[in-house]
Design brief:
This protein is of the alpha/beta class. Helix content is 36%, strand content 18%. The protein has a single domain, classed as Alpha/Beta hydrolase fold, catalytic domain (Rossmann fold, 3-Layer(aba) Sandwich). The N and C termini lie far apart (77 Å).
């Protein structure tokens, strides 16, 4: 009887651990499979395609040509909710700001295969970068990495490893641990499976960097944008304030949002426009 009695605490601990993992996953990744729109919905020509990550996972992506043949190219990495089809307003704004765009859906989102996790998202971002290099022959001097909210972490991770002309971090956080402490004060942070530690990687990012964040952000505190700005290793970095909520700040900011994107793209070195 004694060995069986000892199994109960182990079983309870295992159930608690699995419950914490499920809670973490449900708060980190909120994918939708339903596709609600496409770039054509907002009047943009586009090419639907599939990319393949290094571990074989197929990813849905949309290539949107720029307004000119020599336009800067944005590799766009979206946040934790929805899928590509929820970002068509941004696609229109980025096109109007002068950029060509490659948007990809994370594994487990929209029409992409697999299930999301931190290493997988890094592989997905790298797959987008590799496609732009191999298929579109986009030189580093024309490439701008863009990350929205959760997507800011893979964009920063990628910027610390590959050459690019610039980085845009839109309404993102310092780390998963910091977000867990904020949203779930009693959550044992040491048990997190996802780190997404942008604050630790930013000192290695030396390319021009634009941070965008609303002081009224209701999900990711503005203070995290200030910390990220301070940690960035770039000699050319700037924080532009948006307005309103986390998900609507780019719209509530009105013309200030596309202007910030346009000004950043046009501020890149002359070779970025060739």
């Amino acid at each position: 009887m004694k060995p069986a009695f000892l199994l109960w605490p182990l079983l309870a601990a295992a159930i608690l651990y699995l419950g914490l993992r499920r809670l973490e996953r449900s708060m980190t990744f909120v994918p939708s499979r339903e596709m609600l729109a496409h770039p054509g919905t907002v009047g943009l020509a586009y090419e639907p395609l599939f990319l393949t990550a290094s571990d074989g996972v197929r990813l849905r992506a949309w290539w949107i040509p720029g307004p000119s043949a020599d336009a800067p190219v944005m590799l766009c990495l979206h946040g934790n909710g929805g899928n590509l089809s929820h970002r068509t307003d941004k696609m229109r704004l980025f096109h109007d700001a002068g950029a060509a765009q490659l948007w990809l859906d994370w594994r487990g989102y929209g029409e992409s295969a697999g299930a999301p996790d931190e290493p997988g998202l890094y592989r997905d971002a790298l797959a987008g970068w590799a496609w732009l290099n191999a298929v579109k022959s986009v030189p580093a001097s024309r490439l701008v990495l863009y990350g929205e909210s959760l997507g800011g972490a893979p964009a920063i991770e990628l910027a610390s490893r590959v050459p690019a002309a610039g980085l845009i971090v839109d309404s993102s956080f310092t780390s998963a641990a910091d977000m867990a402490r904020l949203l779930l004060p009693r959550f044992p942070v040491r048990l997190l499976s996802s780190r997404f530690d942008s604050l630790a990687r930013l000192p290695r990012v030396t390319i021009p960097t634009l941070f965008l964040h609303s002081p009224q952000d209701d999900i990711i505190p503005y203070a995290m944008a200030l910390k990220n700005l301070g940690a960035s290793g770039s000699a050319k970095k700037r924080l532009v304030d948006l307005k309103g909520s986390h998900n609507e700040g780019f719209l509530d900011a009105g013309p200030a949002y596309p202007k910030a994107i346009h000004d950043f793209l046009t501020s890149l070195p002359a070779e970025a426009k060739k």
